[in-house]
Amino acid sequence: YRRGQRYGTIICDLKHNRVVEVLPDRSVTTVADWLKAHPEIRVVSRDRAGIYADAIRQGLPSATQVADRWHLLKNLGDAVERYLARHRLPVRENPEGDGHEPLLLKSRDTIPPEKEPSERYSAKWDRVQRVQQLHQSGLGIRAISRETGLSRQTVRTYLTWTEIPRTVRRTRKTLLDPYRQQILDLLHQSHSGAEIFRIIQEQGYRGSRSTLAQYLAELRRSVNNGRKPAVRRRSVSPRSAARLLTRSDDELDEEDKLYLRRLFEKIDGSETIRSLCIAFRGLLAKHDRGGLDGWLSKALACGIREIQAFAQGIQRDYNAVAAGIAEQWSNGQVEGQVNRLKTLKRQMYGRASFALIRKRVLCYGN
Predict the structure, then answer these.
(1) pLDDT value of residue 106
(2) If I label 330, which of 16, 119, 128, 345 is the partner at 20 to 30 A Cα–Cα?
(3) DSSP readout, 275-316?
């Protein structure tokens, strides 16, 4: 009922597009008991939770379990993201030799040169090494958490690091972005700020004059100090980079493809990961159940532990995953019902019991 603390279970009839039951928890016993009361069920589509797999085995051992395709892709994307989080990702920047001068950033957003590690950086690295030493000595994550005072999630993160990822300040998009090169050209032609504001307004600029004035002031200071405008760079999160590795070339623009090449050059194994991701998406798109064994063999032999762990999870859930690839059923409709349930829950938050939530969900449209 409160996020991250207690969950229920929603059960939908995929054939007739309706919710048939809402259970107060997601325990194996509760779900299995409900399934035992409905022996007519032959196919059950579910997410990847082991609780539901066990409940179906106990409640309807003869039913076909179908692992949801979207959750399979989500699990794969999460594995890729965890791998990338262990590395320092290259930043995005303007392509060299594109015929344009580089765009100016405010000084606080420019990328600083490499510095000697600060005291704060060194102290953090000492904590990381201590966590890894405790783990190598045989302590589990809970024990390390108690010993160091760090959360279990932080301990898990530290165990994957070979170095501390260096962050880069992100640049936010502004209404000036489409006009930056033109503004630079107009400034070189000795136009005043008022003239530049009028010209870009006529071309569709809807921002304030003060935003332009701040940008022009920074440009003039860089010229007066003999500095060249800095290359505009943007940091890339592991999640964003993971999306690029899991998408086909048809889904990427030229900037994405350029960044992907830089990622291949900097991150070992990224090309292997992308080929495996594209191949796995192909299995799902073509309902190619026969290709699953070959894909698993390649994934288990790739040498990347996050992808190997994902493949091992598929092996443990092999029949359901194979059915998810081959069968027409999926959890898409269920996710939509979950979204509606959350809306109803928020409308009644603090004022309603589970019984009322259940009635509102089940009586929808009646």
Answers:
(1) 35
(2) 345
(3) HHHHHHHHHHHHT-GGGHHHHHHHHHTS--HHHHHHHHHHHH
CA-to-CA distance for 42 and 223, rounded, in angstroms?
73
Q: 152 is written with which tokens?
A: 């279990």
Q: Which two structure tokens, joined as six digits, stand for 339?
A: 């979204």
pLDDT in tens, 9-34: 999 999 988 999 999 998 999 999 99
CA dihedral of 53, 59, 60, 64, whole degrees rounded to 10:
-10
Judging by beta carbons within 10 Å of its beta carbon (0-12, 13-18, 19+), is residue 137 exposed, middle or buried?
exposed
Residue 101 has pLDDT above 70, yes or no: no
Q: How many CB atoms within 10 Å of residue 156?
A: 15
Candidates 183, 185, 233, 230; CA nearest to 209 is 183
Distances (CA, A) of 98 to 14, 126, 264: 52, 43, 21
Count of C-beta atoms within a 10 Å radius of residue 346: 8
Give the Cα separation of 304 and 270 in Å (integer). 10
State the residue for tokens 């783990």. 135
Beta strand extents in the chain (DSSP E only)? 9-13, 18-23, 43-46, 64-67, 92-93, 233-234
Query: 7 near 27, Cβ under 8 Å?
Result: no
Q: Which distant-in-sequence residues (6+ apart) come within 8 Å of 162 by Cβ? A: 86
CB 331 within 8 A of CB 45: yes
Residue 361 has phi, psi (to 5 degrees) of: -70, -45
Contact indicator for 158, 131 with CB cutoff of 8 Å: yes
Distance CA 30, CA 9 (A): 9
Lookup: tokens for 237:
């999160």
Q: Give the pair of three-digit tokens for residue 182.
A: 């033109």
Classified as helix, coil or strand, 251 is: helix
Question: Which residues on neighbouring strands pair with residue 12, listed in sequence order?
Answer: 19
The crossing angle, in degrees rounded to 10, of helices 28-36 and 50-59 is 40
pTM of the model: 0.65
